[in-house]
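Batch manifest, entry 17 of 40.
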Amino acid sequence: MPQKPNIKKIVLAYSGGLDTSVILRWLQETYDAEVVTFTADLGQEGELEPAKAKAEALGVKEIHIEDLREEFVADYVFPMFRANAIYEGVYLLGTSIARPLIAKRQIEIAKLTGADAVSHGATGKGNDQVRFELGYYALDPDIHVIAPWREWELDSRARLIDYAERHRIPIARDKKGEPPYSTDANLLHISYEGKALEDPWVPPEEAMFTRSVAPEAAPDKPTVITIEFAKGDAVAIDGERLSPAKLLARLNALGGANGIGRVDLVENRFVGMKSRGVYETPGGTVLFHAHRAIESLTLDGAAMHLKDELMPRYAELIYNGFWFSPEREMLQAAIDKSQEHVLGTVRLKLYKGSVTVAGRQSPASLYSQEHVTFEEDSVYDQADATGFIKLNALRLRLLKMRRN
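Output type: structure tokens
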């Protein structure tokens, strides 16, 4: 076994949950180093004070808890939504997009505190280990990274719980008194993995969900809202201008109350295996449909189609952890250029799990009723279509002639 490096201070991305609480004690014992905890408030709700108390109980002297909600939405979520990024057809990348911000701030705290290492709680089977560490190395090529799940012998949830009980580390319990699902929460979404969800045939229990009512239990009357956009970003709901984080929080409440945003997905992880996860993304789902609607009115057709071609590559870069890569930044520049005239208002109907576009308008609209009307007009000569069709058909006619 290789000799452990001489580490003096470690910055741990700390949630206060089972995994990172065990990791905190394990780091103290294994590396005999001071551990600094960093907890990012990304809108996960209800985890911050317990995390601080647990860190204090475990002897941590430097505890960093920072409200990053506005930065998270403005600088990470909104740029991603300008791209309409969606992974494998349904996943709005709620976990993926949070990792680069946590990694960035973790490296900044390491420099601030003089730490020579950083650590995270991601397992050796998942995507998050890649996302965190690609972020670390992109921002500090010489940083030492400690990934406990790739080093220790606590290779199962049962062993983790046993370790926590032996070290008197409090374990969260669900409504049935059992350890909860493995979750990741932020202002964009919450995910659930593990327990019965590991069998993709078993449906999730209704009691598991925390951010949305079941669609069949949603109100029988639709909720109608308007969302205003400027340069591709949502800026107001029902005429009220809101900060990015407050706007997304409002959409979460509206979407969740109407049973919107649940996804049950078997996805392809970057490390090669398939995994099953259940996600709740109520506000993000509403925002996604609204943004597509305002783009349909304001984006040039060829630009929109090119953007749609780029999207899967962009989404894959975020999913795989390449937020700080030059190719992601290149794509972002192209996407942001396309959003210069994406402004206006979208009206939406939220009803029992569905989002329906009920109207859109924009001062930068490219929609010309004068051109598209079925009634008499003076701006479009329908006879022009004859030459257009013949030119486009020319190569098809020549191909057919050759076959004959």
